Amino acid sequence: MTDLTVCAYSPGTVRDAAAHTETHLAVLAPHLRAPFRAALPRAAAAVGRRLLGALWREDIAGTRARYGGSGHPHAFDRVEFEAVPAGDPVALLPPSIVDGRGWTLAAELANAVTNLAIAYARRDATPPPPFGGPDAEAVTLERLAVDGHNLHPCGRTRIGWDVDDVLAHDLEAGSTRIGFVAIRRDAHVGDDLGALCDGAPPAPPGYAVQPVHAWQRDTVLARRHGDLLRDGTLRILDGTVPAVPTAALRTLLLPGGRYLKLSLDIQVTSSRRSISVASTRNGPALSRLLTRLLAGEERVVLLAETAGAALDGSRDASAIVRDGLAAHLTPGERVVPGAALPLVVGDLLAEYGRGPLAFLTDYARLVLPPLLRLATRHGIALEAHLQNCLPTFTRGAPHRLVLRDLAGLRLHRPAWPPPAPTCPCGPAR
């Protein structure tokens, strides 16, 4: 059996990442230094528990033999640990996997810890959205799930952002900015999104205006596409408009209640959050298809992706427009993002009044049948995880299921019964 011995000191340790963060906070946000320092042990423990759970599931380096019986078992061979044997999650990494790639993981873990500690330090001071409505309420509820992904140890990684970027653009910032670029028409793919954005600058002749995340505009586009900027294919435009970051970070809520999903080339969990050109075309096509297929599902609401556009051949300036909630809800219907349910389910149960088992049964009957019908009847699998599912409740009872974000959807065309629905979209990768 291989012990999970403590790894040697390396630049990937939480100690180094925390020192870097404190140095920056001393200049950028001195009032956060003490709360950040106080939050570090809690953040390290949260990341460590998820990492230990992942090592257990895969039984890496004898984890099950070493820690058997010390956690709380769940379904699907998952164990949740209440405590971890090391203050730094990096110390849990087995030496057998700590090679060049292993130290990359160590850096991701340290990044997750420090960003989670920043989030803990800021959460009580996060300003509410500057406008109301069900979408603003949903974003406020999302913020309750401050740990991020409920299983992934790197749910709070922000690889590519430094401390100043986290302070300016992360969920707890409460607001961020949308910038604009002009794409020459022969390099523009898709819809005219600039015409759909209030506050967008006018398009120069021969160009289409494209919304982009302000950070993406000022860093990625300026650094990576110097050739396109020099030859005039791409032009960076002045001005920004405000928006509210959601838990997805690259998806921003606009004051009018619609959403913009924008390429954001940072790593969150295990993937970089840019958007393929194909996804900008797939979203509207799939929305039309799903609207038709879900017409008989009275308890399902789809937040359609109505338009999308991109820079031809690049993932760096892609954008997708998504509908908001306001037009779909009835009086007394409350939306709770799935990720926030563990934090508010007690209040829902009290209002529901029929006990947790009946509540869970009603919830399962709401969520599972429409998703399984789509899969078995039409060969369509939605990526219906806790961030993409927004159940609604009336008087505490599960009422309807709101679905959003079609990027992870999978199609099995042979399962489509005749006449097969048409879908002119291509693969997103």
UniProtKB/TrEMBL annotation:
> An example of a Gene Ontology BP annotation on this entry?
siderophore biosynthetic process
Domain (Aerobactin siderophore biosynthesis IucA/IucC-like C-terminal) ranges: 358-414
For this chain, one GO molecular function annotation is: acid-amino acid ligase activity
Pathway listed: Siderophore biosynthesis
Q: Where are the transmembrane segments?
A: none
PANTHER family in alphabetical order:
L-2,3-DIAMINOPROPANOATE--CITRATE LIGASE (PTHR34384:SF5)
Q: Which family does it belong to?
A: Belongs to the IucA/IucC family.
Spell out the protein name for this chain: Iron transporter
Give the originating organism: Phytohabitans suffuscus
